[in-house]
Write a structure and sequence with these properties.
By secondary structure, this protein is α/β, with parallel strands linked by helices. It folds into 3 domains: 4-52, no CATH class; 60-118, no CATH class; 141-182 and 198-340, Nucleotidyltransferase, domain 5 (2-Layer Sandwich). It has helices at 8-19, 24-31, 35-42, 60-75, 82-93, 109-118, 141-157, 252-268, 290-298, 311-314, 316-340, and strands at residues 4-5, 51-52, 164-172, 202-209, 218-222, 241-245, 277-281, 301-305. The strands form 2 sheets. A 6-stranded mixed β-sheet has the order 6-5-4-3-7-8, with helices on both faces. It has a two-stranded antiparallel ribbon with strand order 1-2. β4 (202-209) and β5 (218-222) form a beta hairpin. α1 runs antiparallel to α2, α4 packs across α9 and α8 packs parallel to α9 (290-298).
Length: 343
């Protein structure tokens, strides 16, 4: 239920009438204000602009923070829908406070309707659905819109090259994703190549900066528990972080940890100068949760999402680094087999 705001002007008129001798009861009747509301304000028990009715589940500060997050998300191409919002509120309120909804399901339509009424700057709008095929024309309208928004953000923030970053993840398996060529007898149709029998995906999350610097990657295994012998003394990337998930792909809590670690690395390099850092990403689900956006805002990191299905032409890591990486994996795996005698 939405809390009702008392009309301040009516209260002030009631005060004036009471000062001129009118009874509180009569003033309440004449000006249409509750007697208790008048008395509480005259005694200073509540503020003049206080609302009456049941308290909202979230505090004003919490709701205002959510409003800021939703508005920032919309400006930066991050689609936060009602499912994301209600799930974020569900998790936020599972802290012991009294809630009128099932703690496993979260708030319903009534809460959402009340929230939107209390925050008229926020409104639901239909998003445009794009075809799943990847675009090839630079003049496609959404690309124009994206670069117009990027130009506006650049003019607003005026970042240096070491304050603009791109993060992305890619995966491979111990078998590799492509085969290599090998010599065989002329006419032989099938040429075998021995590789590991493991097909489990391993992903790498990397970040690069516009000035050419790289940052410690996070390597994610498909497991429930991390085993140190998977990477200790295995010649992994310098400074790499290791973790695991059920799918090996980046999940919300892992990306939150990654974002915190990235911020720490910025500090270690002396780049936390009070100016915002821009982090371009492809809009993976783990990057656009309310918790992630809130954390980024607190860390002064602007999350800026690339248009969907365009990373092959718009994302630096996808265009340059990961393409070279994917081409190198098969030859590296083949070389490792010859050196070690097997995987």
């Amino acid at each position: 239920m939405t809390r009702r705001k008392v009309d301040e002007e009516k209260v002030r008129k009631a005060f004036a009438a009471i000062d001129n001798g009118m009874s509180v009861r009569k003033a309440a009747e004449v000006f249409g204000v509750g007697r208790t509301s008048i008395e509480d304000r005259r005694r200073g028990k509540v503020a003049m602009n206080a609302k009456v009715g049941p308290e909202t589940i979230l505090s004003r500060e919490e709701e205002d923070s959510l409003e800021d997050i939703l508005l920032v998300a919309a400006r930066n191409f991050l689609a936060v829908d009602r499912v994301h919002l209600r799930d974020a509120v569900r998790r936020l309120c599972n802290d012991g406070r009294r809630i009128p909804w099932d703690p496993e399901k979260g708030p319903g339509k009534d809460w959402l309707g009340g929230f939107l009424r209390r925050h008229p700057r926020v409104a639901e709008r239909s998003t445009r659905i794009y075809e799943a095929n990847r675009i090839t024309e630079d003049e496609e309208p959404r690309m124009v819109q994206f670069y117009e928004r990027w130009a506006a953000l650049h003019d607003e923030v005026k970042p240096k090259a070491n304050h603009v970053h791109n993060t992305d993840e890619t995966g491979t398996t111990p078998q590799g994703t492509k085969t290599t060529k090998a010599f065989a007898e002329s006419g032989q149709k099938v040429v075998g190549s021995m590789r590991s029998n493991s097909r489990e995906n391993i992903t790498v999350v990397a970040t690069i900066s516009a000035d050419g610097h790289t940052w410690a990657p996070t390597i994610t295994f498909k497991r429930q528990r991390l085993q140190v012998d998977w990477f200790v003394e295995r010649n992994g990337p310098e400074g790499a972080r290791y973790t695991c998930t059920d799918s090996s792909f980046m999940q919300g809590d892992v990306f939150i940890a990654y974002l915190k670690d990235f911020h720490k690395q910025l500090g270690d390099r002396g780049l936390l100068d009070g100016k915002p850092h821009i982090l371009l990403h492809d809009g993976h689900a783990s990057h656009v949760s309310v918790e992630v956006i809130r954390l980024a805002m607190n860390l002064k990191i602007v999350l800026f999402q690339l248009p969907s299905h365009t990373s092959h032409i718009t994302q630096p890591l996808d265009v340059v680094a990961f393409g070279r990486f994917k081409k190198s994996v098969p030859s590296v795996l083949a070389s490792f087999y010859h050196i070690s005698g097997g995987l």
